[in-house]
């Protein structure tokens, strides 16, 4: 593996908005959890790595993504900030194509490795799971672009199937949007004291919120149309993120280990 350039500041997880990532310089990063291909670029003068979650010959499904390897790769190359993009279904009637800046989450996943601490006990504080500094930058970027957005709670399910009407009725009591990829990423980032925030795009109404059948094609179509807007949002966010971390994220794992 060639040496990763120094001073990589930010990682973008998801690849949405960076659909030309394969044209970037690629590097293979070895982690204790497997190899990760990262794509290097510069955005608004800052060095950035892009990690497409679903990259692979057959589009890796959400329950098979190697989340630990991806987050460890970010950590090992020295990036301290992570901007995640997620497609979500709305349980609150958000317009399709609108955005949600996530402010909390509920984990309904079942079979995903969700911690780096398999050999010792660590209770990491997630009272503020999404970095406030990145969230402010995301909101500022959305307002600059004049794009509609809200803030909300994210429910993450195991997938790869869509949720049932009963599941949505239950989850809608506690959360605003539902997706399949945001957990365990957010918790893993906390365990490494990384700053992590997520921009969610509403690609469909959740099951039971409409009479229409849910399809993967619908998700792909909405995301495809939003590529340019998402690129501008992420680029503006990267530009607006402060040079120095002043949030509590950098202390997340302090005092966590027994």
UniProtKB/TrEMBL annotation:
Question: In terms of domain of life, where is this protein from?
Answer: Archaea
Q: Which GO terms describe its molecular function?
A: S-methyl-5-thioadenosine phosphorylase activity
Residues given in the record as substrate binding sites: 180, 204-206
Q: Which InterPro entries would you find in this protein's record?
A: MTAP (IPR010044), Nucleoside_phosphorylase_d (IPR000845), Nucleoside_phosphorylase_sf (IPR035994)
One Pfam family hit: PNP_UDP_1
Q: Which residues bind phosphate?
A: 53-54, 181
List keywords of the entry alphabetically: Glycosyltransferase, Purine salvage, Transferase
Which E.C. number(s) belong to this protein? 2.4.2.44
Q: Where is this site: Important for substrate specificity?
A: 163, 216
Recorded family membership:
Belongs to the PNP/MTAP phosphorylase family. MTAP subfamily.
Q: What else is known?
A: Although this enzyme belongs to the family of MTA phosphorylases based on sequence homology, it has been shown that conserved amino acid substitutions in the substrate binding pocket convert the substrate specificity of this enzyme from 6-aminopurines to 6-oxopurines.
**Function recorded in the entry:** Catalyzes the reversible phosphorylation of S-methyl-5'-thioinosine (MTI) to hypoxanthine and 5-methylthioribose-1-phosphate. Involved in the breakdown of S-methyl-5'-thioadenosine (MTA), a major by-product of polyamine biosynthesis. Catabolism of (MTA) occurs via deamination to MTI and phosphorolysis to hypoxanthine.
The entry describes its oligomerization and partners as:
Homotrimer.
Q: What is this protein called?
A: Probable S-methyl-5'-thioinosine phosphorylase
């Amino acid at each position: 593996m060639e040496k990763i350039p120094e001073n990589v500041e930010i990682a973008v997880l998801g690849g949405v908005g960076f659909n030309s990532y394969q044209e970037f310089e690629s590097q293979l990063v070895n982690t204790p959890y497997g190899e990760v291909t990262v794509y290097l670029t510069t955005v608004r003068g800052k060095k950035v790595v892009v990690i497409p979650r679903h990259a692979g010959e057959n589009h890796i499904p959400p329950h098979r993504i190697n989340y630990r390897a991806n987050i460890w790769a970010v950590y090992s190359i020295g990036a301290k900030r992570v901007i995640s993009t997620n497609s979500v279904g709305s349980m609150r009637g958000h317009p399709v194509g609108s955005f949600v800046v996530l402010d909390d989450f509920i984990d309904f996943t079942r079979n995903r490795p969700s911690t780096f601490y398999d050999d010792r006990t660590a209770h990491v504080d997630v009272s503020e799971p999404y970095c406030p500094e990145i969230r402010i930058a995301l909101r500022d970027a959305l307002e600059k672009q004049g794009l509609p957005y809200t803030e909300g709670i994210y429910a993450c399910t195991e997938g790869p199937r869509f949720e049932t009407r009963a599941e949505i009725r239950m989850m809608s009591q506690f959360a605003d949007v539902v997706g399949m990829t945001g957990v365990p990423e957010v918790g893993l980032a906390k365990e490494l004291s990384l700053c992590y925030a997520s921009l969610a795009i509403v690609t469909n109404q959740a099951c039971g919120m409409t009479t229409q059948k849910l399809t993967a094609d619908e998700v792909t179509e909405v995301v495809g149309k939003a590529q340019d807007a998402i690129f501008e949002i992420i680029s503006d966010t990267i530009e607006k993120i402060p040079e120095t971390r002043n949030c509590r994220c950098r202390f997340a794992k302090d005092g966590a280990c027994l």
